[in-house]
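Fig. S4 source data, part A: sequence.
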Amino acid sequence: MGKSLRLPAAIANILLLAGLAAIWMAFAPLKLGGEVSYVMVNGISMEPGFHTGDLAIMRQAAAYQVGDIVAYTDAQMNANVIHRIIGTEENRFVLQGDNNSWIDAFQPTPDEVVGKLWLHLPQLAVAIEWVRAPLNMALAAGLIGGFFMITLLPQKPNKHGKKKPAAGGSSAGMFEMALYVCGFLALVCAGLAIFAFTRPATRSADPIKYQQTGVFFYTAGGAPGVYDGDAVRSGEPVFTKLTCTLNLGFTYILESAVPAFIAGSQQMDAVLLDEASGWKRTLPLLEETFFSGNLFTSEATLDLCAVQALVADVEKKTGFRPSAGTLVITARVAAAGKIAGQTFGEPFAPKLTLKFDSQRFYMGGAAAKTDPLKTVQPGTLPNPAVLDASVALLGLNLMVGSLRTLAVVGLVLSLLGLLALGLLFYAATRYDQEAVIRTKYSAMLLEVYDHGLELVSPVIDVASMEDLARLAERQNGMIIHLPREHAGYYFVQLEGTTFRFVTGKGGAVTSRLDRFWLWLSQHAKGAL
């Protein structure tokens, strides 16, 4: 057996490495496979809770609720924005700064949210900005590098100018390395187990998405040379001097990535209205018609001249005529059924808006970037399916169940390794008095290499090392250790007399357990 194994130092190093690994797992940024984002507060929108220079640490969450403080990336500002969720609209969040009187124009989806507030560190961003300056970063790097250089200074040489090697240093180093590895793995696996078992192993499947689409189209008679073709097509104005009949059509489509079986009814009407005065008049176009399936088309006819005559009659009776009337055609769809086995039933009422005067009917009232003939209404249904949950760790997407198994197996194996090393250490020291003495009295030992020490004064052998230690404590002195082959000599000089204890083999081996420890000790010495 060589020098003592410096177990406290080994354990301290293991704890340090495990602590660094745990800190990394907890604070790793998103770009490096973690779940954390670091946002520096700049502005007054979240005062008085947050001020410029604060650091907000945001962590990804499985779900976000009203009242949560979250961060999202604003594409226009090219920066992260920290605001509070005040509501939801369909699959988007409505946000507002605590110090703002207005609501954010951008409404992010859950996938666009960077994370929820985890830690708030006032004014820490100021210190980070200071460190990021080149001169300051060089100063900090120099201080850290100097600290590590001090810790790596070589051992002080002995009186012969050589570093004193530890007896059995190679085997002891291997033992310490094995202890480091097993201890480090045990703590890492324990941290991984905490990480895995604090996260749900399953999750609800993504909502079932579907989309209802309604498309209007119309045709009318034309005259040669007025339009590109012989008839009016969808989107072109209709002149009542050329035709009074407008042939309306409407197509309903239910789109879903999963099987859908629906049926329902559809009806169509037109509403004449004047937006300035609030006057309106409803004209039925198509009575309730039933359909089944994901695709349905209906048609109706509208007499445009009758519409103009109705407006003229109102003018005659009331004396009021709008400069330009509005005709809103609405297709009312009531569909119900099953989508992926889930009950579906949502009203859908797309509209087509036509402006008109005494000469024509034309498209109007729609934004330039949208198709006035097409209406799209997305929706979702809850999905009862349960899926295995996964987490992002160090850039990998791992299943929580597999991560739990890996953590438990790794923890058990590393603990078994520590147990085996502990048995080896116990066996090696049980019948090795030198190792026990070095472990128990290391602070009192003084190593010497003078082989003539016994001739200096009369020598008295003591019965045990404990007796020798009590003599040393009586005069607050040291125990002199003189190593020799196959034995160790320990001396205490007191009032001109040298008291000596010589190590030898342990006590008698009487039991089977003692014989086992002796056998293991003999093999453990070679391993350690």
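Fig. S4 source data, part B ends here. Residues 208-381 form one domain.
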